[in-house]
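Suppose you are handed a protein chain with no further information: no name, no annotation, nothing but its sequence. What can you learn? This example shows the usual starting point.
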Amino acid sequence: MKSQKVKISDIKLNPNNPRLIKDDKFKKLVKSIQELPEMLEIRPIVVNAEMVVLGGNMRLKACKEAGMIEVPIIIADNLTEEQQREFLIKDNVSGGEWDFEMLANEWDVEQLEDWGLDVPITKDLNEEDLFDIEIPFYTPSQIVPNINELANLDKTKLLIDKINLLEIDNKLKEILKARASFFTDFNFQKIADYYDKQNQEVKELFKDLGMIILAPKEALKRGFVELSESVFEL
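A reasonable first move is to predict its three-dimensional structure. Written in structure tokens, the prediction is:
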């Protein structure tokens, strides 16, 4: 296959190419083409019979950015559709970045790995995976702590004081105050000690609020965790 020069407007970017070069790296690519356009003669853009790019998507974008009118191409019109998809990956195994969301949604992960690409795509956790996570367990002691030892509210109180000073809608204040509780520093060992000596009504409330979780399955039942990628990321 011989290279030939064509109008850049005749070439179509490949919307299914998951390769990305962004920001400073893209600017450097544009600059290198402007300073040494001969590099395109050495490595022409590869297109299929419909003039859709198989190799050189980002180079084509950089050429457009550099203001070029014509570019060298090689037409690979003897590849099957499957071979074209394989070419997209193998031609771009090194350099740049991958759009992993596109890879996960539109490509076969095992096939990508066979072609030499490591794809960091996580899987949903099943129940057994969740129970393999190291969970801290607190054994109640015989000492009942002072209620002030259960949590440090200093930062939460400071934030609530700031919220109260604002002249804003009362509903918004409620929302902000609820968020401020996120900064409460709970002492779960003390909470376990305190919980152990309370009546059943208080114990149920502690469990409903997630202050005490007796077992992973209970956490699932009460909605404190879900078996999904969000758990894996946490």
